[in-house]
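S.,

Sequence below, as promised.
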Amino acid sequence: MAVAYPSPEPVALTLVEADLPQALSVQAESFAIPWTERQYRDEFALRWSHTTGLKDPATGELLAVATWWTVGDELHLLNFASAKAHRRRGLGRRLLTHVLAQAALAGCTQAILEVRASNAGALRFYQRFGFAPIGERKRYYQDNGEDALVLRRDL
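The prediction came back faster than expected:
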């Protein structure tokens, strides 16, 4: 059971370059191969790319981050992570709900993402949001050659 985040409630914001150090920190504690500053800067330059974060309004601390594309009628979730110290408090749920709503407002009718086949926790998380497997990408992950499951849901 998730522990609720104490008030004041975190706010969802579009991240900017000044947020990069915190985003990189969340990445480093979340992924075997975290995103780099260059990858974020490249995403910031794309008109179809969005990087959204949840911040603590009292401290400015970045609690969770998502990078996603809107391409045609599709939301493609590229990257999603919560700060280690703030996991299991409903922040991921709050951020994903916000991202899905923003994508729907932008005209997206479906959402797609990839997740490690072995990441049972992430699979359960996304399935609670109605994502279901539609395929796989063989040897998708560079660090160990693990397959990715492709998940999809309607918006």
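Strands lie at 11-14, 49-55, 62-71, 74-82, 110-116, 132-137, 148-154.

Coffee later?
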